[in-house]
């Protein structure tokens, strides 16, 4: 399918922070995707929590499998809209590179530890990973990704952080948060694909774990309507196949809704090119009805899964571990690797190091610190 005129065009990319010659066989966004896949931070995602800690089961989603699912969904939506599939894939694969071990529990604990030292936010940390923390190339730190990929990675940003980014990189990825303009359609799309993916796979993982009962989801119309539809067509279906088929239909409905709603918004605002996208309101989204159904699902998952006593118990343990590790590294009770020890800002170096840990490495470090077993 040909690319739409409002899609991001690698031939007119705003470029990289450190100029490089073009690759002979890949455009800028394809090169970004490849650099992300080969990065150390990307490999670490396989052992980073989504909802369930890494040791709790082999079949639960991790940050890596989540990122792959986001990339698949984003490409599926980008293709019929004529958007740049390579760019949405690059953004999707990189969007969680800054996540801490132990999921949002780890982030919240690290942000609390850093409250007097600039705070911590995983979205901003993902940008920091690709801009500074990866150590692969002789001429620069980071991955030196194109502006458009970096912009998509930074999907949220406070005004204070945007001002700091703007002072470091005038006219860079922080500018749009100060001017209240929009990111590319590819960035907007990947942000929504992230939401679609985790809502669906958290249902799957929640039921698999035993923390969610299939019957309890009857109060969620976005799920229950497709469960009933599936049962009407396949009344003898076993529970596992029923769950998979219901989620599959739910995902398809959301994908088609986003495509139709976005097409209508592009037409309504008369979008003719990529610059028009930036000056318009957000264009990628659900219809009003689908947005409400998605909100009901999110509220259900928050109350029934993310705040489940068993999840909260491991959450508390994880936050304690992060706080203990932060205090020990900050006080130099534990040594950081040499290149972190060389940093002038000790607290930021500690945050960078902890954020880069996998679940199991953080567990081992905490056991080494305390002399106790994680599961004791």
UniProtKB/TrEMBL annotation:
TM region positions: none
Tree of life domain: Bacteria
UniProt GO MF annotations: dGTPase activity
Alphabetic keyword roster: Hydrolase
Keyword GTP-binding: no
Region (Disordered): 1-29
PANTHER family documented for this protein: DEOXYGUANOSINETRIPHOSPHATE TRIPHOSPHOHYDROLASE-LIKE PROTEIN, DEOXYNUCLEOSIDE TRIPHOSPHATE TRIPHOSPHOHYDROLASE
Database matches in InterPro entries: dGTPase (IPR006261), dGTPase-like (IPR050135), dNTPase_2 (IPR023023), HD/PDEase_dom (IPR003607), HD_domain (IPR006674), PHydrolase_assoc_dom (IPR026875)
GO biological process, one term: dGTP catabolic process
NCBIfam families documented for this protein: dGTP_triPase, PRK01286.1-1
HD domain mapped to chain residues: 63-199
Protein name per the record: Deoxyguanosinetriphosphate triphosphohydrolase-like protein
PROSITE patterns: HD (PS51831)
Gene3D superfamilies linked to this entry: Hypothetical protein af1432 (1.10.3210.10)
Family indicated by similarity: Belongs to the dGTPase family. Type 2 subfamily.
Pfam families associated with the record: HD (PF01966), HD_assoc (PF13286)
């Amino acid at each position: 399918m040909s690319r739409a005129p409002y899609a991001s065009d690698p031939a007119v990319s705003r470029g990289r922070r450190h100029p490089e010659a073009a690759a002979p066989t890949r455009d800028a966004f394809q090169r970004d995707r490849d650099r992300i896949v080969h990065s150390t931070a990307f490999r670490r995602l396989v052992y980073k929590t989504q909802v369930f800690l890494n040791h709790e089961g082999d079949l639960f989603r991790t940050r890596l499998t989540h990122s792959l699912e986001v990339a698949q969904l984003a490409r599926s939506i980008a293709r019929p809209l004529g958007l740049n599939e390579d760019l949405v894939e690059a953004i999707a694969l990189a969007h969680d590179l800054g996540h801490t071990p132990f999921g949002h529990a780890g982030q919240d604990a690290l942000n609390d530890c850093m409250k007097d030292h600039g705070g911590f936010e995983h979205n901003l940390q993902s940008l920091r990973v690709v801009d500074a923390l990866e150590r692969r190339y002789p001429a620069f730190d980071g991955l030196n990704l194109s502006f458009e990929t970096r912009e998509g990675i930074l999907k949220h940003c406070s005004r204070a952080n945007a001002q700091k980014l703007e002072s470091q990189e005038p006219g860079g990825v922080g500018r749009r948060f100060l001017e209240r303009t929009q990111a590319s359609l590819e960035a907007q799309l990947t942000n929504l694909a992230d939401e679609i993916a985790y809502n669906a796979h958290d249902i799957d993982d929640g039921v698999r774990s035993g923390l969610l009962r299939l019957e309890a989801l009857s109060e969620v119309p976005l799920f229950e309507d497709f469960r009933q539809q599936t049962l009407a067509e396949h009344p003898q279906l076993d529970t596992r196949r029923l769950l998979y088929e219901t989620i599959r239909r739910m995902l398809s409905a959301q994908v088609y809704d986003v495509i139709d709603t976005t097409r209508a918004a592009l037409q309504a605002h008369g979008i003719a090119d990529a610059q028009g996208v930036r000056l318009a309101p957000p264009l990628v989204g659900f219809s009003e009805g689908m947005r409400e159904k998605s909100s009901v699902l999110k509220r259900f998952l928050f109350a029934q899964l993310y705040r489940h006593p068993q999840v909260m118990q491991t959450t508390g343990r994880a936050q304690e571990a992060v706080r203990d590790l932060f205090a020990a590294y900050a006080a130099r009770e534990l040594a950081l690797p040499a290149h972190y020890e060389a940093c002038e800002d000790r607290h930021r170096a500690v945050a960078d190091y902890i954020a880069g840990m996998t679940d199991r490495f953080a567990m081992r470090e905490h056991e080494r610190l305390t002399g106790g077993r994680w599961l004791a």
